[in-house]
Design brief:
mainly alpha
Length: 194
Amino acid sequence: MTAPAPRAWQRMLSGRRLDLLDPSPLDVEIEDIAHGLSRVARWNGQTAGDWAYTVAQHSLLVEDLVGRFRPKAPTAWRLAALLHDAPEYVIGDLITPFKAVVGQDYKALEKRLMQAIHLRFSLPPVPPKQLAALIKRADRTAAYLEATQLAGFAKTDARRFFGRAEGLDDLTLTPCPPAEAKTQFLARYAALAG
């Protein structure tokens, strides 16, 4: 008798059952994404403050930066920026050095999840190159701001790893409770999804 195959799905609070090997857009709910991302810590939780700085907060920052870098960006681009790390509601936020160790299996899983999420929210499964580059720029800028304001990086080290973040002195990052991060994420989603 052979052992049963290991479970490769996760039950969400919405009641959805998300298959990690073959994710369906029908099993993706914004409330599940917001809930999960509001409880996933950036930087493995190694940030200053009473609360962890969450992926939900990071996602809001990246979306804001996309708007600053490209004020006339289409709403769909802003939504794609907000959802750029959405697979992490299921798989967590692996720090870049760990992703390098895990390799291509992780990337393939993340890609399948992202495609299902994009389809669920009427976004192209693969973003146009111009959008991907804009989100990457905003993501690296967000990482620089987080690194220097919350994660203890010296500016010289942060510049070496993430590039510069010029002209963004008005942005002060403050970790908040998960419930607040979730509320902010859902409010921004509602404004973009309109």
